[in-house]
Fold these 2 entries.
Entry 1:
Amino acid sequence: MTTPTPSDAPRVLVLRAPGINCERETAHAFERAGATCEFLHVKRLRKEPSRLDGFQILAFPGGFAYGDDIAAGRVLAHELRRSIGDHLLGFVERGGLVLGICNGFQALVRLGLLPRTAAGPLVQEVSLAHNLSDRYECRWVTLTTGPNRCVFLPDDLTIHVPAAHGEGRIEVADPQSLDHLEAEGYVAFRYVDENRSPTEAYPLNPNGSPRGIAGLTDVTGRVLGLMPHPDRAYEAFHAPRWRSAVPAGPPDGMTIFRAMVDSARGATAHA
Amino acid sequence: MDAWRVEVEVRQGLPDPAGTAARTALADAGLPLRGSVRSRRGFLLDARLDRSAVEKFAAEVLADPITDTFEVFAPTDRPAPVEGRVTVRPRPGVTDQVAISVQKALADSGHTATGTPLAAGTYHAWFLADADRTCGGDALHRAAERSLANEVVQEILMGAPPEGLPGPGGEADLAVHPVPIRDLDDAGLETLSRDGGLALTIREMRAVQAHFAAQDREPTRTELETIAQTWSEHCKHKTLTGRIRFGDEVIDNLLKSEIAAVTRDLDREFCVSVFVDNAGIITFDDEDSVCIKVETHNRPSAIEPFGGAATGVGGVIRDVLGTGLGARPVASTDVFCFAPPDTPDAEVPAGCLHPLRVLKGVVAGVRDYGNPMGIPTVHGAIHFDPDFIGNPLVYVGNIGILPTAKAHKKAHPGDRVVVVGGRVGRDGIHGATFSSLGLHTDSEMVSSGAVQIGDPITERKVMDLVLRARDAELFTAVTDCGAGGLSSAVGEMAEGLGVEVDLALSPLKYAGLAPWEIWVSEAQERMVLAVPPEHVDALLALCDEEDVEGAVLGTFTDSGRIVLRYRDTVHADLDLDFVHDGVPVFEREACWSPPEVSDPDLPEVADLGAALLAVLRDPNVASKEWVIRQYDHEVQAGSAGKPLVGIAHDGPGDGAVIAPKLGSTRGVVLSSGLNPRYSRIDPAAMAECALDEAMRNVVAQGGNPDHTAVLDNYSWANCAVPEQLGALVRATRALCSLARVYRTPFVSGKDSLNNSFQDGDRTISIPGCILVTAMSVVPDVTATITSAPVRPDGRLWIIGRTRRELGGSVHWKTRGALGASVPRVRAEEGRDVLFGTARAIEARAISACHDLSEGGLGAAVAEMAIAGRIGVEIDLDRVLLDGDGPFRAEEILFSESASRFVCEVPADREADLRANLHEVPAAEIGAFTTSHRDLVIRRGSTELARVPVDDLVRAWKAPLDFDAAHDSIDPAHGAAR
């Protein structure tokens, strides 16, 4: 392990595409965590997929890619699978880390990079359906991790972050799939109640996702996606109750960015 | 033309939210159903594709592999009509953004065609359960018209699916069309103005006639259209900039002599650019400035609430993007006025949509534009009054940030006219002239061309492009295409120069547009740039990178003329001075006589707790959480003061606080004030209370009243009626004299006049309404506060004096009375209260603060208790009163006197509070407590009321909670995202 210097700061490629709209705050959060970031438009990435080689982290920010027309993230996922799907798989296989937030998570699920329970081609295994409320909603939620196969995510994390989406409810082909996802550590985040128990109850769980599932990881543990927005929860003043004499706790979206950047740095240092 | 049809539905057994929503919507529209409703999304695909390609594409793109199933129908399939099937599709020419994405996905799948690109379309279909099929036919059609579609922009098909896609556009009429005008008499001129949709007065038509007579020629159709657009009330504000005879007085240009004069005389150092640009600009920090604009989009929203509100949001965002050399939009606001949502159907005039449908459509429109744009909607308000039934008000605002060095712009001769963004169709032709006319029963039908559907993703791409091009210094001037389309935007940029444009170079959505239609079309999501010739290639390369269409249409000149060609044929050659300054000065009569109102003689309230709950249930006071939660107020990671506050995240904020620069805590405090109900008693009181309320809300959040700019947005009834215009003048003068004392410059404003609805013999006029929006710059957002109490032992103080001012109050409204004793603002007292309170907050002597407005002290204290879910006790005898004789309890509790705050003061900070308030009247009236969870109202030692906070919460939150089960937002506009 060497002391990090700016020159060995992990490099993050922040994807842009028509309708992606959280790229600035996502990049800002990565930079606060010690990474350097570069924006790249999907049009350019399709032409020059080898540009992925220069990066340790690939970020899919939130937004409404292509208007979320047809379904959230569908058109972007289709475009990426058709044009550079193999390159994206190669990036993960080489040890690259991927983060998808909100719409980025939706795109990763539809692309087949999440949960990807077996190494192999890109196949969509689960879906993110409309919230049971049938409404887009913006509200703060509490998430916990648990035992999970993500290589950089602690098991015992609790974070407060805002959620803002209309299609965030995990849907699977059969109930056994849920058991499998849970048993094998694919569930990265869950919505929890005040006792930190996973919940399906509105509004603590804003979309009705079964077993409180809010985020997933993949077979390699190097791809992480979640519906809520850690990219909006790192300044003390972001938290809704920061003014209280007994604040609800600092928003700690930064934990995820730091964990990822530290992991990427470790991997670089060992390489 | 024929097309493949793919219909997608949710697998049996999984939730079908769109079907459930349609069932509820049909029931609300008078068609209760026994069974469920199934929904399908339909896609029409180019007949040139083969079946295997269609099936593969459907499986891969149109249907979700986990949750959906689909069916494919060949182009030649002509299924028999099915009883109980309703299909809704966009009318030809109406933007179908999903279809464009389908076309993109087809291309990504490798499907291309020679000649025209592969075509696609979309629709929605609903199927009643077998048990309900007998309800089909006319009853279903009527219910569908009221709940599933808006026939202004959509078409309903009963039984059968759509047979195919609309064909390509027709041949364009490229003739020049001189319009004979020289020989017309007044009647002929009026006919021409009316039938041509020009909305010009007889005096204006005569000026046009004289102008062309002097040149010994007739105008072309394109020239007439250009003049009509530029001279429209919407663009020129002829009433407020014209001459008004007000009794013995002659007022020349009310905007300049009153409103702009305030700003000029105050000469505040923080003003960077006012009244000259799309938005007002004030300084933010050493490098950057912030700008703000608020617009109305009333007419389009009355007819097509979803599209009207959405394009309103899109328009005001472009205003900010087109301010200076381009500002980055960082926050949006929205303020609405509607008729009450529980208005009985029988009271809705023909030609009007039910107010609840308007509300839901407008909210969905703001949501589905603002959220995809990635701009947080951080602040808003809703006011209900029966007289908004024909003319709902939709105010949309946007705030942007830009380098101060880029706050000014100037096009130069030789710069190219470059249009970037959406393509041109017949959308919104005559929007500017339409919005200058009154609405009537048939408006829905005749004005449908003036309504459009927005496309936020195209706008987002345009935004990214403009900001990158700004930073690369590729253009010298920018403005948005709004009302009047290119005619207004290019005409405005060419002022003082000249311009030559070839309309044939404009990208079109479909063939068949005449040159004048291209020139005045209000197709959305377009900006016009003045690009020096040496930067044109770089700009177009950037367009390509950002996936934005850019087209060079012409060149700015120094000819003083506006010359429009279509290829080699000249369609217009106009003197710019005439276009901009040739409009005859508008003259109007105004008078003012106070309305005949008096205070009611009501018995003293027996049950003060019940009266308080009634006030909290009033829709003007009740929680707007159902609306607020549907807006993304967190995107851009700058949210420091939320629209909902407190321990359960549901207390009312007084506005919003944002930190617009990532990594910095410097911020902007936003707020607004509006209460048209006071106008019924005195428009002067309405105006000054709006300003005072906006300033109170700035201060209550910890804003700096000494670095605050304000905006005035008028919505008024028909100002050709002298009494209406007189009321407007009276309101303006009250507003301006108060702004002088508060030293708040107006930096931008807008007016929407003529908000009258003609229902047969009855004219429904809105109450005169000024929305005041305030924006304050603060050095540190972490020093701001909210209305939520944060101390278990906080003392409760009132700042300011309470008078017997219940005229127009919510309390009297709940008792069926209007009254006469409307709140008035004492300017010096109001200023001292604002500045004293701001000092005390800065000194941290106040830990939570709430302004007193609708519902008075009772509502304010109840709302603080709700935000904190904490007990509170107040003693009405300690409230500082100003008035003769003893006050009734309800007078103290529900008077709406201006210039008052309630605040939570930490027990050890009372001396600091006093020291900072100086001579401002203030008194401790009670305390928060954790020993119980009731709101207790006493007079001295007598307890008058004790209401559990949970009862307050229920009363306040229930009225406007249109919960999911009753959600009938136009399902065709879909589904939540």
Entry 2:
Amino acid sequence: MPKISIEDLRKIKEQQLNKMSVRAGHHRAKITVHMGTCGIAAGAREIMTLFRDIIGEKDIADIILTNSGCAGLCAKEPMITVELEGSAPVKYVLLDKTKAKRIFDEHVMEGKVVEDYALAIGSETMAT
Amino acid sequence: MQERDALLKKKVVPSVEVIPPERLKLLDEIIDKYAGSTQNLIPALKEAQELFGYLPMEVQRKLSIGMNIPAPHIYGVVTFYSFFTITPRGRHTIRLCLGTACYVKGSKEILENIIKDVGINVGETSEDGRFTLEAVRCLGACGLAPVMMIGEDTHGNIHPPKTISILDGYQ
Amino acid sequence: MCASPFYRMQLMMCAGTGCIASGSLDVRDALERELQKRNLQDEVQIIMTGCNGFCAMGPLVVVYPDGIFYNQVKPEHAPLIVEEHVLKGRVVQDLLFKEEATKTRVPLMKDIGFFGLQRLIVLRNRGLIDAESIDEYIARDGYAALAKCLQEMTPEQVIEEVKKAGLRGRGGGGFPTGLKWEECRRYDSFPKFTICNGDEGDPGAFMDRSVMEGDPHSVLEGMAISGYAIGANQGYIYVRAEYPLAIQRLEKAIHDAREYGVLGKNIFNSGFDFDIGIAPGAGAFVCGESTALMYSIEGKRGMPRIKPPRSAEAGLWNQPTNLNNVETFANLNPIILNGGDWFASIGTEGSKGTKVFALTGAINNVGLVEVPMGTSLKTLIFDIGGGIPKKRKFKAAQIGGPSGGCIPNGMEDVEIDYESLQGVGAMMGSGGVVVMDDMTCMVDTAKFFTNFSVDESCGKCTPCREGLKAMYDKLTDICEGRGQEGDVEFLIELGNHVNNTSHCGLGKSAANPVLSTIRYFRDEYDAHIRDKHCPALVCPELIDFEVMADKCKMCGACFKACPSNAIVWEKKKVAWIDREKCTKCRTCIQTCKFGAIR
């Protein structure tokens, strides 16, 4: 390994911060894949893998990819929720890989909601 | 109580066991690695103790000649630091923490149980060569007090009456 | 770089000594197996971090990005965590931390009182980085302070910044770090050395271990900065023999730092050379004293010498030497990057910044906490520490180890900084706080600390060697019922002599535990001496055990537990204790769930 310069120090910092972004708590976009038993059976794992591949490939640091339980709408799985910072979350239903890819490109990257697949905008109200 | 506290003080009995010459040869490597400076004495003694389990006179004498450090200096260092021992060890070394946190949480009772049931006090080795008991001043694992190490295993949150059942795992 | 897998989730596992002893490595293996079983190993990463501080609750797992904190995780919980949380995103309720005061489960780490009330400077990276990765340290601004010093600042400016910060030595004495450096810089004799004191000997203190294990690079960087400031090219870290994991992590850190060239020749092309070696200790408390420590590095018996000359003038091999504590060094990176004024804005008038305390003893949340100087003892024990377990009463807190003193119940509003602690007869020491409840006998505690000091006295000067022994004998007499009127006065007089006439810092403070317990718990000494009674029921010679008939539930647990068959019990009858046979071992008191034995 060569000796590093102060410039290298900055580079290492940036590269490494990307890998650690999961722990940062701050992010521009959050994608939640609903992975209850029903979601997994309907192919949620594939969608999750797809997103991981895209994010890993493009080396994007400011997106959080997470999962949650069944959203209660089992008939319309696989489902995801996309939440951009400062705007209401959008739920997408009945997805496959192609649809998911389009959502990623248009909504997550460019901020345009893909109305074709969207179920609703906004979260359900919580009782508590 | 006073008797027990008196027993707590370590007894230093120089060993008379004879180490075979071929085993003493193993020291050459350590001497080659560390000779040249007094600064290296403590690391050298540590490695020698790992090799023999303790530091008998023969080992100290050989290190003295090999590293060109006066034997009294080496003996002085060996007896000063609690990590070094000049008596042979049992198969398992029990390091019982008597630090504040452990003391407050009952390590004294653990000590009493060991004294009573194994029959050894701090600094002693049981006659069957099974255990050597050492008291240490804090293992830095106060979160788990009271703590005792047996060999490399750390046992934490010990309920004093259970002491002997823990020892039963080490034969 | 782009080919590296994207981990959507990271499980941060504590791999400090405490959690490893509780079995965190087994939990890691179980989690890894479980992830592999479900083919999740490329999606979810397990990272082993340094000590998280909450040692009593280990093994600990923090799940990111959610920030969910699981405690007391066992290998058999691994399938549950993977199946429920990792796969389905459902938090496993049973493994969440339970706040003792409110009896509620708290999922998020930041909402737990223990963590939420802390302010992290020294422990800024704890639980957040892989303890063995230099890259992760760099990502959290690691070595940027060293770069800033070498590129933009003269050594004088570095010293000026540290002086402005008001940083004081965290090892006990509280000497201003900037002044120490300035003095060392003044001497024109080379080579010079800078030493890190990692001989954390105070029982009940483990913050230095935690920093060396969890964030070793922060110590190395601080040492390099001090080397630059005073003009030293060689540093040593003296680590005690009881900390093998710390030695191992430091070795790896030094190796990686050399590879990157942040240690070694011509660092960052500045012309500054600096390297660090590890000097392992071999078990001697007195080696925490600066001059003794230097003799020990030289391979000699570690016995303090009389000062002056001070180490800054003639230290290691009689050369100018700077010695700071682990925690002091770990403060330097943030001070250089954020400026001395920033640091000085935290804390009190005379004590700046934060201090790490090790909370142990009779307290719910045992662990490491970092709080601003001036935080009250009450906040520390009750808000962060979660109070005293088993509904017992707070009696006293022992601060500063064998050199420190007690702060009794009723004075817990005291704001902790160097001055106020001295005012009440304790001292900062390295920051060990041992909490004692009403089951603790203060005379016995004083005896314990004195015994410690007798054992660890190097024997060089008479007041410490003989004076402490005489004090110990007197305390033993008192605990065993042979106390007489005048004993307390004798202890006070002798204690003052020991404190005033010993050579080194350890001897000068060795009588503190006795003097401070006498100051606040004189009545307990008097009860031992006059009434031959130990109010806390600790000293065996001064108590007789008995079963309180009204509280006894006749379960027979004490009967089964008694090792000397001194308890007589039959089914459905109240137990009683045969005093002839009773050895006063307290096993029955420990065993009884109903508090029926006294």
